[in-house]
Write a structure and sequence with these properties.
This protein is an alpha+beta fold and 424 residues long. The chain has helices at residues 2-23, 25-41, 64-75, 85-101, 110-122, 125-146, 152-237, 243-265, 285-294, 312-333, 376-386, and strands at 49-51, 54-56, 298-304, 337-344, 348-355, 391-396, 402-409. Residues 354-376 are annotated as: Disordered.
Length: 424
């Protein structure tokens, strides 16, 4: 647990540093230049100097202006080491070659390792090979040609080791960055795919709802057309003036029915034979609850208000909400106890399905579907509630278990399911 916490803290610090570097990249570049500058200025106060090759010419043996110029040539290119790593390396390597030709060893020469790291980290891969090769040749030339050294072999071994380490570190950080970028890209693509699946699920549910609403509205329109045509025939036989308006009502209804079938028919994704099946209503809840009880779920069913006064569309929505909620209870809670409550007020219909969760010690039933698919029913509940500007609350209960609470805001909640002949 402690190791994981420390790793989390390190990752958090790394993310903060990376975010700060993205906002102000000049801070890191300036810090690198400042550190190497301080390291290089120490050369101005030294006397006899020992480098990795033994005793070399001290920096104080050269004019101060020359030393400052050499230090500037080694330090200033580092400002552009990330934006232009190849030119920065060429500049530093050139100045470093001049330093070696003069037979001087400067601590600011560490900038060559930084430039080599930078080209391995940020530069093109082709440039890494020739930069490393040029550095190796330069080190060998300095040890065996330019610098009057006493121990060339150990010095070359030391410098080649640090050069190889700089390149290896740059390539390792580069690979790690590419790996993290690939992970971020994969996470972004997975998020996009998840959103697409949610949208496809919503579209499929809307298609299903559209088919069901087509059947409901189409049925009511057919009843309205039949009543209008019958009233028109009756009025015409009695030579009443209402015959013509009733014919217009029938024609308008037929036109609306044709448009409804044309617009919503393209949304159906189920076989056309399924349209012949009657849609369930609240009267079918008893049969649904019997099937659920037979599966091992204890269900208590309570109602309040005049359920028979609800329109067919509202009844279908209530039925589907109860069906999906109890299905999820069977999937995730097994033999739990559930309570179904349907309350009809003046303008609202509330559907509440609450379960107690799995019994203590019981094994949680294995979900036979993928994790994303388990949310399809919840998306369907929200889509159906949205048809009636409803409020949906879905989540765990404080005392354990799960609750689905849907409040449908509709003034049609108490409207009769079928038009009455006397009103026609």
């Amino acid at each position: 647990m402690t190791t994981e916490t420390a790793q989390d803290r390190l990752l958090s610090v790394r993310r903060r540093i990376a975010a700060a570097d993205q906002r102000r990249p000049w801070l890191l570049d300036g810090a690198v230049v400042a550190v190497v500058t301080v390291l290089g200025l120490s050369d101005l106060g030294t006397g006899q100097q020992d480098g990795p090759f033994g005793e070399v010419i001290a920096a104080t043996d050269l004019p101060r202006a020359v030393v400052l110029l050499l230090i500037a040539g080694l330090v200033l290119p580092l400002w552009w080491r990330r934006r232009a790593p190849t030119p920065a390396f060429v500049a530093v390597a050139t100045v470093m070659l001049v330093v070696w030709v003069l037979g001087v060893w400067l601590d600011a020469g560490a900038s060559l390792l930084i430039a080599l790291y930078s080209i391995a980290r940020y530069g093109p891969l082709r440039a890494v090979a020739w930069a490393f090769g040029a550095t190796v040749l330069g080190v060998c030339a300095a040890a065996f040609v330019f610098l009057p050294v006493a121990h060339p072999v150990p010095g070359v071994f030391l410098l080649l080791g640090t050069t190889t380490a700089a390149v290896a570190l740059g390539l390792a950080v580069r690979t790690h960055g590419a790996y993290l970028a690939a992970l971020e890209d994969r996470a972004a693509r997975l998020e996009i795919e998840r959103d697409q699946r949610v949208r496809l699920t919503a579209a499929a549910e809307r298609s299903r709802v559209a088919r069901e609403m087509h059947d409901i509205i189409g049925h009511n329109l057919a009843v309205m057309i039949g009543l209008a045509d019958g009233g028109a025939v009756l009025a015409e036989s009695r030579q009443e003036l209402a015959a013509e308006p009733l014919r217009a009502i029938g024609d308008t209804g037929r036109q609306a029915l044709a448009e409804l079938r044309r617009l919503l028919g393209v949304l159906r994704d189920e076989p056309r034979d399924a349209e012949l099946n009657p849609q369930p209503a609240l009267a079918d809840l008893d049969a649904l609850l019997q099937r659920v009880r037979a599966a091992g779920l204890t269900v208590t069913y309570r109602t309040a208000g005049d359920l028979n006064a609800l329109g067919r569309g509202v009844q279908l929505t209530v039925y589907r909400v109860v069906q999906e909620a109890l299905t999820n209870t069977l999937k995730h809670a097994g033999t739990a106890a559930a309570e179904v409550t349907v309350t009809v007020d003046r303008d609202d219909v509330r559907v509440r399905v609450a379960d107690t969760g799995p019994p203590p010690g019981a094994r949680r039933p294995r979900d036979p579907v993928e994790p994303d698919e388990t949310r399809h029913g919840l998306v369907g509940i929200r889509e159906r509630a949205g048809l009636y500007d409803g409020d949906v609350t879905i989540g765990p209960r404080p005392g354990g278990g799960w609750i689905v609470d849907v409040l449908l805001h509709t003034r049609a909640a108490r409207a009769a399911a079928e038009p009455r002949l006397g009103q026609a």
